[in-house]
Amino acid sequence: MTATTTSTPSPRPTDPPPLDSADERLRRWRLVLGGEAGEDGTGRVLSGRDAAVDRTLEALYGAGSRPPGAGASAGPGAGRRSGGLGASAPRVARWLGDIRSYFPASVVQVMQRDALDRLGLTALLLEPELLEAVEPDVHLVGTLLSLGKAMPEEAKATAREVVRKVVEDLERRLASRTRTTLTGALDRSARAARPRHRDIDWNRTVRANLKHYLPEHRTVVPERLVGYARAARSVRKEVILCIDQSGSMAASVVHASVFGAVLASIRALDTRLVAFDTSVVDLTDQLADPVDVLFGVQLGGGTDINRALSYCQSRITRPADTVVVLISDLYEGGVREGMLERVAAMRASGVRFVTLLALSDEGAPAYDRENAAALAELGAPAFACTPDHFPEVMAAALEQRPLPVPEPGSRT
Q1: Which of 48, 56, 176, 265 is buried most, with the most CB atoms less than 10 Å from its CB?
Q2: Largest CA distance in the chain
Q3: CA distances from 342 to 309, 324, 334, 349, 354 (A)
Q4: 26-55: pLDDT as tens digits
Q5: Alpha-carbon distance 286 to 261, whole Å?
Q6: pLDDT tens string 306-363
Q7: Model pTM greater than 0.70?
């Protein structure tokens, strides 16, 4: 896990100031031509949002953007740009999220189709022998999901098989330990101080009362009975996973979907999975198959945490028995004050609120430090978590124990 103080946030680009018609034409030409200032004849230097937009265009259409082996045309300016997506799946996933933030839907669709061709992903999906030569991983899954409707119909079946292979591998690695850890936590949280006779756990009762052993009578006086509540066979805890599906959260979305399916398989938990960007989609009905969950996610776009938390709050029926897990980098595009007020209200009602800046093995994430600090003041510290440590975090939340938040600057 990674403390909130170990990473530096990536500043969100700001909109350019209003321009007159002549400056606007120069700006657009500068974005079209690319290259360094002074080389394109406009003399215009880009900054803020324009610079970010230029980087996304350069990554796809620049001379250095072709995948290895694709080759680049020689001639003046060839190789001038050093940007590009190359073979890095994490960069591809982030880029696919960025273009949704900067361009209208019609332009995004064109750029996604171009990305399929220029990155060789179409060939990869349509040629089984090429697919077999690639080791599918979480980042490739994030890239495939980010492509969404731009993916050719004939490639979707292959993409689904790639996703299933990665999901099944994650389930083998994480499911057993998660079920064992959380089942133990649920059992401990369900113990009754005064159980009925048939609900007494005699082994734990004897261990808890060994200090009351009477040698002369060769017996233990059970001053404290330990058992399980009769409700242990029914749903006792509710878990809501609220997942930010912006492009930068691709790996976290994949892991959260797998964990959501695992949690849903535990009878003592009532699990709900909600994904959001500027809209909210409830994927709870698809939790039986995490692959269905992932194909119900649309990576990219903006972020409205307040709206997502409003939906989650409306679905809480037993606050004292509910754990809400928000997985987000906290870059709020909605109403920040509303987001914080909802967290405070849920905490006051008895909900255990957990904020994970990332659920992945990618290292320290970029996140909104101001919002993370505000949540910490509300008693909901924000920290990054690796998939291997997620079961311990959930166990602590279910048992109402202190969360295993790392010390600032440390990693586990």
Answers
A1: 56
A2: 102
A3: 7, 12, 13, 11, 13
A4: 777 777 766 665 455 566 677 778 888 878
A5: 9
A6: 999 999 999 999 999 999 999 999 999 999 999 999 999 999 999 999 999 999 887 7
A7: no
Question: Nearest-CA neighbor of 11 among 370, 381, 377?
Answer: 370
Place of tokens 């209003």: 18
**To the nearest whole number, what is the mean pLDDT of the chain?**
77
The three-point CA angle 378-380-381 to 5° equals 115
Residues in the chain: 412
71: left (phi over 0), alpha (psi -120 to 50) or beta: left
Q: Write the pLDDT tens digit of every residue in 156-169.
A: 787 888 888 889 98
Q: At what angle do helices 250-264 and 153-189 cross, to 10 degrees?
A: 50
Tell me the three-class secondary structure of the chain, residue by residue. Answer: CECCCCCCCCCCCCCCCCCCHHHHHHHHHHHHHCCCCCCCCCCCCCCHHHHHHHHHHHHHHCCCCCCCCCCCCCCCCCCCCCCCCCCCHHHHHHHHHHHHHHCCHHHHHHHHHHHHHHCCHHHHHHCHHHHHCCCCCHHHHHHHHHHHHHCCHHHHHHHHHHHHHHHHHHHHHHHHHHHHHHHHHHHHHCEECCCCHHHECHHHHHHHCHHHEECCCCEECCCCCCEECHHHHCCCEEEEEEEECCHHHHHHHHHHHHHHHHHHCCCCEEEEEEEECCCEEECHHHCCCHHHHHHCCCCCCCCCHHHHHHHHHHCCCCHHHEEEEEECCCCCCCCHHHHHHHHHHHHHHCCEEEEEEEECCCCCCCCCHHHHHHHHHCCCCEEEECHHHHHHHHHHHHCCCCCCCCCCCCEC
What are 150's two structure tokens? 């731009």
pLDDT digits (tens, 9 = 90+) for 180-220: 888 877 776 665 455 666 667 787 778 878 888 888 888 88
For 401, residues 6+ apart whose C-beta sits below 8 A from its C-beta are 395
Q: How many other C-beta atoms lie within 10 A of the C-beta of residue 323? A: 22
Q: In the prediction, which pLDDT does 78 show? A: 37
Name the band, by pLDDT with cuts 50, 70 and 90, for residue 367: very high
